[in-house]
Amino acid sequence: MGIRERREREKDERREEIIGAAESVFFGKGLAEATMDDIAEAAELSKGTLYLYYRSKEDLYLAVTLKGMDIMEELFRKAISTGEPSIKRIYNLGEAYYEFFEKYRNFFRTFYFFESPQFHTQVSPEMLDACTGHDRKIWELVLTPIREAQDEGLLQSSLDPMEIGVMLWSNSNGLMRLIDRHADHWKDSLGVDLFSLMRKSNAFLLKAMMTEEGLKKFPTGTFEHAATGL
Amino acid sequence: MGIRERREREKDERREEIIGAAESVFFGKGLAEATMDDIAEAAELSKGTLYLYYRSKEDLYLAVTLKGMDIMEELFRKAISTGEPSIKRIYNLGEAYYEFFEKYRNFFRTFYFFESPQFHTQVSPEMLDACTGHDRKIWELVLTPIREAQDEGLLQSSLDPMEIGVMLWSNSNGLMRLIDRHADHWKDSLGVDLFSLMRKSNAFLLKAMMTEEGLKKFPTGTFEHAATGL
DNA sequence: GAAATTACTGACTATGAGTCATTAACGAGA
DNA sequence: TCTCGTTAATGACTCATAGTCAGTAATTTC
């Protein structure tokens, strides 16, 4: 019988609607200032109903984070399925990450919360698992072209692929955070362009991790027209 | 007359006592779970009194952060006043940063809040200024040996000293955060030692930013016995 | 020793997260 | 079409806690 299925579909839609409402409220006011009453009003539902779908305000916030991860995953997937050489696809990932940062800044910001367990006081273990699960899935994506580049002898095989990924990710992520909160200050009063700095440091790191052969085939700067300089 | 002065001294002492109480409560429960009543009890004062000294719970939290910055500044100051060569003192800074992370983990964690303006909803502009001011002071400290190393022709002079500092700092900071929340997971289930990874990536970056002359005098690994590998 | 200043108090207010008894809507079976 | 059971939704309520403020006590000044 299709009734059960319709009900489930409707429930899923409700879930999406709630996330949509939560998104607009959270993005407008931030986690702390947003109230469940605000979200209920935006969703045209009563507050009690929100709690039928999400255990706590923080769980709901992480539901928005999960949606952000979906978007990011999609961008990453596109970046690595171009059929280009592995090294180029690693560059693409850097571009995709920066694109996500630029275009989906609000989602990028929700990651701050996810990445600070400090602040998880009401998060349900289920929701946390869902997030870390999704996080790992994205990491798998990142590792694919890295492993390939190692197999092709372009990246040093003495390094763990995860190590390579983390170095590049951590570097980009740290600088994007800085850009997010202080870009103007750095540019105007210190004269430092953090964006090109990110390009530079990523290039430094990648260069240090490539093999002689890799550097011969793809000298630093090969993809410099690219957006992020990864 | 010394009465005014005595009163001021007493007020300062009170301030310190409150910070001490806040510290123990915040470190035990985290910002969100800690209540002003908890802190008042720990300080053996009424809640109202706390508000005579600090405008909000978040201001009080940042007061603890400021204390952490004091500690860090002290460690940094020691690190760069050894009379050693400039490059070595840059290494020392890396060590000092890691020492701060290890020994004063709780203070290190308070920086998460300071570094996420997202979460500043009740912070007074005065307190924020105090924090950013102190932050800059510490940056000045970091820049000293970097400028010196450039003057001596050991670090590329095409780079802005601030750029060099930010690259190294951002890299270390990002990885320490990762270590802070996931060291076990990374080590056990992924087989990646984040600490040595931090050493490696710092070395990569520094190497890329040194001059030929610098690398001749101080080849990578010169200070490898050092704690952080910066 | 009266008046003024300063430090402190804790009962009170306001707000907002989360709950739960109740109501409404829907569908199944007779 | 009438019941009865099930599921979805409601909103008034509780409870916790940040922040306030009128009042008290201690200290200083003259």
Explained architecture:
The structure is a homodimer of 230-residue chains. With 230 residues, chain A is mainly α. Chain A is 77% helix and 0% strand. Chain A contains ten helices and no strands. The first copy, chain A, has helices at 2-33, 36-43, 47-53, 57-80, 86-103, 105-114, 125-151, 161-190, 194-209, 212-217. In chain A, helix 1 crosses helix 4 and helix 4 packs antiparallel against helix 5. The longest helix of chain A is centred in the N-terminal third of the chain and has 32 residues, at 2-33. Chain A is globular. Chain A binds chain B through residues 30-33, 109, 112-113, 115-119, 121, 160, 162-163, 166-167, 170-171, 173-175, 177-178, 181, 190-192, 194, 197, 200-201, 204-205, 207-209, and chain B through 30-33, 109, 112-113, 115-119, 121, 160, 162-163, 166-167, 170-171, 173-175, 177-178, 181, 190-192, 194, 197, 200-201, 204-205, 207-209. The first copy, chain A, binds a DNA duplex (30 and 30 nucleotides) through helix 1 and helix 3.
